[in-house]
C-alpha cells in the first residue's frame, strides 16, 4: 500500500534506439565548452576550469515540439551532444569515465537569453533562463554499444534549412571523460544522469513556426518544431 499523500509524478524517461526507455535522474549542463562559442558570448576561450548549471529532469522532451515559452522575446537554440550515464560514483578517474556511459543523443539547450542576460548582470542563478518547461528537446538515445564513444564528428544545426551552428565534437574544451570526472569530484553521479556537453558557435533566436534540424555525425538526426 502506498504511503504517498498524493499520486507521485510519472518518472521522466527518454526513448532508446532499438526499444526501451532511459530513466532520467539529473541533468547537468556545461557552459562555454567550445572556444568559438565562448568568444561569441564575450569570454576568453582559454582553458579555465569548467562550470556547470542544471536543468530539471522533466525539462527533457523527446516530442519533437518546442513550445515558445512565456515572459521572453529572445529564445535561443544551443545544439549539444547529450551524454547519458548507466552508472556513477564519486572521484571517477578520466581513464575510467567512459565506462559509466550508456549512450549519446542529440539535444538542444533552449535558452531565454534575455532573462539569462538579466540574471548574469545581477549575479543571480540562471534557472529562469535555462530550466523552464520543455527547455531541453532531446532526440533518440543511441547506446554506446552500438555507436561507440564519439570524440570527433560534425555537429550542426539548421533553422528553416539555413545553417546556423556548426562545429566538431573534437573542439570541445573539456572532453566527455573530463566532464564526468570533474562532476564526480563535486557530486555523486549515478545511473540516469544526463550531461549536456556544450554548444558550438552560432547560437541565435527562434520564432514560432521555425523548424530546427540538429545533426551529429554518427547519431540519428533530430527535428524540432517551435510551436
UniProtKB/TrEMBL annotation:
Keyword Metal-binding applies: yes
Pfam families: FAA_hydrolase
Domain Fumarylacetoacetase-like C-terminal: 27-226
GO molecular function, one term: hydrolase activity
Record flagged with keyword Magnesium: no
Keywords annotated in UniProt: Hydrolase, Metal-binding
Coiled-coil segments on the chain, per record: none
InterPro entries: Fumarylacetoacetase-like_C, Fumarylacetoacetase_C_sf
Protein's name according to its UniProt entry: Fumarylacetoacetate hydrolase family protein
Amino acid at each position: 500500500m502506498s504511503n504517498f499523500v498524493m499520486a507521485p509524478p510519472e518518472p521522466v524517461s527518454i526513448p532508446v534506439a532499438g526499444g526501451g526507455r532511459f530513466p532520467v535522474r539529473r541533468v547537468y549542463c556545461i557552459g562555454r565548452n567550445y572556444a568559438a562559442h565562448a568568444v561569441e558570448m564575450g569570454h576568453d576561450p582559454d582553458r579555465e576550469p569548467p562550470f556547470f548549471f542544471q536543468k530539471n529532469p522533466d525539462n527533457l522532451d523527446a516530442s519533437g515540439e518546442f513550445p515558445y515559452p512565456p515572459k521572453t522575446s529572445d529564445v535561443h537554440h544551443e545544439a549539444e551532444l547529450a551524454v547519458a550515464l548507466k552508472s556513477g560514483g564519486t572521484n571517477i578517474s578520466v581513464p575510467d569515465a567512459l565506462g559509466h556511459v550508456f549512450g549519446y543523443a542529440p539535444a538542444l539547450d533552449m535558452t531565454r537569453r534575455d532573462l539569462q542576460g538579466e540574471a548574469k548582470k545581477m549575479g543571480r542563478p540562471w534557472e529562469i533562463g535555462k530550466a523552464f518547461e520543455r527547455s531541453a528537446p532531446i532526440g533518440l538515445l543511441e547506446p554506446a554499444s552500438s555507436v561507440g564513444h564519439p570524440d570527433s564528428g560534425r555537429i550542426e544545426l539548421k533553422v528553416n534549412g539555413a545553417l546556423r551552428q556548426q562545429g566538431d565534437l573534437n573542439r570541445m574544451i573539456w572532453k566527455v571523460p573530463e566532464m564526468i570526472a570533474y562532476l564526480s569530484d563535486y557530486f555523486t553521479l549515478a545511473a540516469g544522469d544526463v550531461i549536456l556537453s556544450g554548444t558550438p558557435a552560432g547560437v541565435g533566436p527562434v520564432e514560432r513556426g521555425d523548424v530546427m534540424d540538429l545533426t551529429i555525425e554518427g547519431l540519428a538526426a533530430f527535428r524540432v518544431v517551435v510551436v
